[in-house]
Amino acid sequence: MAYLCLTAVEGNVATPLLLGRRLELNTVAVFLTVVLWGWLWGIPGALVAVPFLVIFKVIADNVEGMEIVGNFLGAADTPVQNDDTVVETTGSDEDDGPGPSTSAPSVL
């Protein structure tokens, strides 16, 4: 009985608290993956769908050129960081006319 209680606490409290903050997946991608693998393989496919998706996301996050797929599979509120993005700062709402801008672009 004690083993059952400890396993239930570990599976429902400890593991989600530890892993839930680290690995976030897109809810729609998880749903579509479970439906696809469930359709292909039935119940065993539905059970292995999320682990396959997690493995694919980890690979996509670590392989150059697949970062877009990894960002898509991540949660929606995960900030996307791109080192090549240049954003101009806004100095004023008025247009000073033709000529060079007085505000320097900043790199994120």
Describe the protein's topology.
Blueprint: H1 2-20, H2 27-41, H3 43-62, H4 67-73, E1 86-88, E2 105-107
Antiparallel strand pairs: 1-2
Helix pairs in contact: 2-3, 3-4
Membrane topology: Multi-pass membrane protein
Organism: Loktanella fryxellensis
Family: Belongs to the autoinducer-2 exporter (AI-2E) (TC 2.A.86) family.
Short note summarizing the structure:
This protein has helices at about 1-20, 25-40, 45-60, 65-75, and strands at about 85-90, 105.
Task: Walk me through what this model shows.
It comes from Loktanella fryxellensis. Pfam families: AI-2E_transport (PF01594). It is a single chain. Helices cover 56% and strands 6% of the residues. By secondary structure, the chain is mainly alpha-helical. It has a domain at 32-76. Strands 1-2 form a two-stranded antiparallel sheet. It is flat.
Task: Please describe the structure with a list of short key phrases separated by commas or semicolons.
108 residues; mainly alpha; two-stranded antiparallel ribbon; 4 helices; 2 strands; 56% helix; 6% strand; flat
What's the N-to-C terminus distance? 55 Å
Q: Find the count of extended strands (DSSP E, 2+ residues).
A: 2
What pattern of helices and strands is seen along the backbone?
HHHHEE
Q: Give the strand content.
A: 5-15%
How many helices? The count is: 4
| Approximate helicity band | 55-70%
Structural class based on helices, strands and sheet pairing: mainly alpha
Strand adjacency order, main sheet: 1-2
- Main beta sheet: 2 strands, antiparallel
Average pLDDT across residues? 77
Q: What form results from the Cα inertia axes?
A: flat
Question: Low-confidence parts, pLDDT < 50 over ≥5 residues?
Answer: none
Radius of gyration: 22 Å
Transmembrane segments: 28-56
Subcellular location: Membrane
Main location: membrane
Keywords: Membrane, Transmembrane, Transmembrane helix
